[in-house]
Specification:
Layout: E1 2-6, H1 14-29, E2 34-39, H2 46-53, E3 57-60, H3 68-82, E4 86-89, H4 96-104, E5 109-114, H5 126-136, E6 139-142, H6 145-152, E7 160-162, H7 169-172, H8 176-186, E8 192-197, H9 206-219, E9 223-228, H10 234-243, E10 250-253, H11 259-262, E11 268-271, H12 280-287, E12 292-296, E13 309-313, H13 318-326, H14 338-343, H15 348-363
Keywords: Glycosyltransferase, Transferase
Pfam families: Glycos_transf_1 (PF00534)
GO molecular function: glycosyltransferase activity
Length: 365
């Protein structure tokens, strides 16, 4: 059974990690399942390297925004030659073109998958795009209930399948030895580490995060901000850090293969995103036993799988965020989080089996 996944990039973001966790396990269990991937990001990302090393094909296409006709032609060639049973597109309500083309090429199972919710700046074309996507897709997926409701509509919820952004829980469990080793390597022993993992993009709201950290620094002189990720706003963020005289208090790490290890050296995890479909890093951080603070009304409630996650309104000031964070007295990592994450349905060891069964049932209808 050949399956084509379509995603914007294949670096180290939440969607990419999701694809790797699910697809690698399904392929290891069943060699008759073949996954191919389409991306418009020409830079070879971390997940892409893993996929290529596993023998998967990765096709590069022209972004729709650059040349929509070339994009259509390239997708058509891939689908015509691929003879796919399933096309699984991870572009939410903008999945209508892949869904239409898959319909034209007789693909039996056509999945439109949303990973976003509560986007403030929405295209005027959202409504017709959503209509067309729902018209040509045979299945609608979402990463959370909020993402399903926001993207596909409240009247469609009974038809939407929630596919959990499941993780390999054991990788994220707290390890004191790892904390000591990496803290020593980075010179962070005795520091109060505020952490964030994510692309440096408008969505992730790093500008506000820097403001929050600046206020935390006033309350905790030994505070250090650890940013893991890369993106278009890196130079802008660095300039803000310079203006606030925080150069010696912020550490940048670009995409790393073992990001899960770095949760161990954090004392608190902060995610003031402008919009998220789930925010899988919240699940990862809670698995590590970290105190987490995230945007209220933006981060879906599905992300709160323990009392470790606190929601703070985005319209609160940076000072209010900082005081809320510092008001918590115990920053020690909570251990034994494996059963908590598993009970919430975020264990990849269980969830990949469900997706494999779904694929087979869908093509055998």
């Amino acid at each position: 059974m050949k399956i084509l996944h379509i995603a914007a990039g294949l670096d180290a973001g939440g969607v990419e990690k999701l694809l790797w966790e699910y697809c690698s396990r399904i392929q290891s269990d069943d060699s008759s399942v073949i996954f191919d991937f389409v991306t418009h990001e020409k830079t070879v990302g971390l997940i892409e390297k893993k996929l290529l090393a596993s023998g998967n094909k990765v096709f590069y296409v022209t972004p729709k925004s650059e040349n929509i006709f070339r994009y259509i032609r390239e997708i058509c060639i891939i689908m015509k030659n691929g003879q796919y049973y399933v096309v699984h597109c991870h572009q939410g309500y903008t999945s209508f073109l892949p869904m239409l083309l898959a319909f034209m090429f007789g693909v039996k199972c056509r999945i439109a998958h949303t990973h976003m919710a509560y986007i403030s700046k929405v295209s005027k074309l959202r409504r017709p795009f959503t209509f067309l996507t729902k018209l040509f897709a045979t299945e609608l997926f979402a990463c959370s209930n909020e993402a399903a409701k926001w993207t596909w509509g409240a009247n469609t919820l009974d038809k939407v399948i929630i596919m959990k952004n499941a993780i390999n829980i054991k990788l994220y469990l707290y390890n004191d030895d790892t904390r000591r080793q990496i803290s020593k390597k980075l010179g962070l022993e005795g520091k109060f580490v505020v952490g964030n993992i994510g692309r440096l993009l408008y969505q992730k709201n790093h500008k506000f995060l820097i403001e929050i950290f600046s206020e935390i620094k006033k309350l905790k002189k030994n505070a250090i901000l650890l940013l893991i990720g890369n993106g278009d706003l890196k130079s802008e963020i660095k300039e803000q850090i310079k203006v606030l005289n925080l150069d010696d208090s912020v550490i940048f790490l670009e995409s790393v293969n073992d990001a899960y290890n770095y949760y161990n050296i954090m004392d608190v995890f902060v995610l003031p995103s402008r919009y998220e479909g789930l925010g899988i890093v919240n699940i990862e951080a809670q698995a590590n036993g970290l105190l987490c603070f995230a945007s209220e009304g933006v981060i879906p409630k599905d992300a709160k799988v323990s009392e470790l996650l606190t929601f703070v309104p985005l319209d609160e000031t940076a000072e209010s965020w900082a005081r809320e964070i510092i008001s918590h007295n115990n920053f020690n990592h909570k251990e034994n989080m494996e059963s908590v994450i598993n009970d919430a349905g975020y264990s990849i060891d269980n969830e990949w089996i469900k997706l494999k069964k779904f694929y087979y049932n869908a093509v055998n209808k």
